[in-house]
């Protein structure tokens, strides 16, 4: 199980130190939630902060765009050289065209879906994406409780992938802790995004070991 560290709820005044701590830990990636205040109520950060983070780490940077119009920031993220860009199926614009544009620049692509969105909507993209991000909370705010019924969707996505011989990674985001990760492991999830739980301890690796070692 791969673990991505979400920095959504950290103290941004300490961000440089936090990035260093993440880099020294056993975390597999840094998950960057870009929010515009329209697609979700909250506003997080944009390309300038992501560029600053990129300048201080070699970790895999996974950008999750919770914005109405992803096309407005995609070019900047491509120029920065992030490793993956994930677009919500609920976003505006030509999803296929945006995904292909990202891929042409040798950046991995993901498609994200909210807990209550018809899963059939992402099927046309499953043969081209690297990651399917199933939200396990409603997006826009950290510290929410894990929605267990989303595991029916990850299990379905896992079976769908096997049936059609597809290669996407199944990722979940929201409410991950040492209990909910057990459900993820049982239901086809390959990668989890962890925020609040990961940073509640001063020793990041202790939390990561709890997540990775739970049976």
Automatic annotation (TrEMBL):
TM spans (from-to): none
Highest taxon, organism lineage: Bacteria
Keywords: Carbohydrate metabolism, Iron, Isomerase, Manganese, Metal-binding, Zinc
GO aspect biological process, one term: purine nucleotide metabolic process
Cofactor annotation: Fe(2+); Mn(2+); Zn(2+)
Entries under SUPFAM superfamilies matching the protein: Ribulose-phoshate binding barrel
GO MF term (any one): racemase and epimerase activity, acting on carbohydrates and derivatives
NCBIfam families xrefs: PRK05581.1-4
Database matches in PANTHER family: RIBULOSE-5-PHOSPHATE-3-EPIMERASE
UniProt subunit comment: Homodimer.
Protein's recorded name: Ribulose-phosphate 3-epimerase
Organism: Vagococcus fluvialis
């Amino acid at each position: 199980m791969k673990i991505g560290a979400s920095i959504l709820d950290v103290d941004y005044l300490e961000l440089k130190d936090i990035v260093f701590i993440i880099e020294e830990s056993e975390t597999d990636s840094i998950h960057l939630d870009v929010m515009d205040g329209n697609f979700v109520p909250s506003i997080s950060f944009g390309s300038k902060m992501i560029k600053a983070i990129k300048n201080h780490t070699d970790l895999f940077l996974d950008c999750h765009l919770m914005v109405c119009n992803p096309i407005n920031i995609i070019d900047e993220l491509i120029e920065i050289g992030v490793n993956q860009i994930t677009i919500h199926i609920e976003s505006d614009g030509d999803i296929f065209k945006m995904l292909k544009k990202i891929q042409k620049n040798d950046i991995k692509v993901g498609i994200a879906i909210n807990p209550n969105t018809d899963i059939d909507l992402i099927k046309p993209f499953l043969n081209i994406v690297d990651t399917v991000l199933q939200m396990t909370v409603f997006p826009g705010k950290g510290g929410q409780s894990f929605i267990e019924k989303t595991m029916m969707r990850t299990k379905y996505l896992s079976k769908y992938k096997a049936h059609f011989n597809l290669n996407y990674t199944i990722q979940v985001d929201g409410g991950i802790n040492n209990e909910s990760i057990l459900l993820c492991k049982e239901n086809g999830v390959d990668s989890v995004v962890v925020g609040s739980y990961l940073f509640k301890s001063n020793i990041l690796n202790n939390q990561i070991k709890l997540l990775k070692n739970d049976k």
